[in-house]
Amino acid sequence: MRGIQDRLPEFAAQGVRPVAISVDAPEVSENLRKKQGYTFTFLSDPETEAIRHYDLLHKAAGPEEHDISRPAEFLVDRSGIVRWENFTEDLRVRPRAQQMLQSAQSLHW
Amino acid sequence: MLTHSSRASLCHPVQDQPQKQSNRMLWLGLAFMLLAILSNLLYFLKIPAALLPWVNLTLPILALVFLLIGLVRAFRQPQIYKGKIWGSVVTVLAVLLVAASTLFFVGARKLPSSGGAPQVGQRVPDFTLPDSTGQPTTLAQLFSASASTGAPPPKAVLLVFYRGYW
Question: Which pTM does this prediction carry?
Answer without folding.
Answer: 0.83
